[in-house]
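Long-time lurker. I teach an intro course on protein structure, and each term I like to show students one example going from raw sequence to a predicted 3D structure in token notation. This year I'd like something fresh instead of my usual example. Would anyone be willing to generate the tokens for the chain below so I can use it in lecture? Attribution to the forum is fine with me.
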Amino acid sequence: MADLHRSIPSMVDGLKPRQMKILFCSFKQNFTKEAKVAQFSGYVSGHSVYHHREQNLAGTIIGMAQDFVGSNNINLFQPNGQFGNRHQGGKDHASAR
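-- Reply from a regular --
Happy to contribute to a lecture. Here you go:
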């Protein structure tokens, strides 16, 4: 049951719980400037009681910033850097450091 809760998006806003925590922390931090993915994932894991691996969180942040056709309907973060391209399906993104 917990796996279904984490993998099916909410009907209200279309976000999964992990994505909701990331957006909550971006609004809490007044996230308007650029930041590295690893720094932001550390902030999110510290302030939103995220007890899983930070690498999973970094992958979600990268997925929320991808703007090519086939990744998301609308990217929620501005992709400044290498977040992958359409030809590889986003799997060629840069390392989160």
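Some talking points for your students: The chain has a mean pLDDT of 82. The first helix runs from residue 2 to 7.
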